[in-house]
Amino acid sequence: MKRLGIAALLSAAGLALAGCSEVTNAVDQTNKAATKVSACAEALSLADLNPDPATLKERAADKERRLRELANSVGEKDVAGALTGMADSYLQAQKENIHDAGKVADWTKRNLDRLDALRKVCA
């Protein structure tokens, strides 16, 4: 009888642990989704849709750094890749003579393409 009680107790403990594992997985998934949503929202707010050539180069370093931080914080490779692509765009803005109107237009087009890629993976 004592063995039956111990077996029942072990079974109950096993079920409880299995339940804990499911709860832990659900919490992990929720945290990953929240991280993705917050990273996507912040990245979208960082995007320059109508850049001012006078300040674009100055602000590009901060935006690049923040986008790379976001990419490192997100567990999903496709989202991290889109964030890195946007960061690369701001790195490019730092290196180019972005004051020329034609270059600003080209950079904006490329940035919009990268922003579209981000929107798709964040949806």
From TrEMBL:
Origin: domain of life: Bacteria
Signal sequence bounds: 1-18
Key words of the record: Signal
Protein name from the UniProt record: Secreted protein
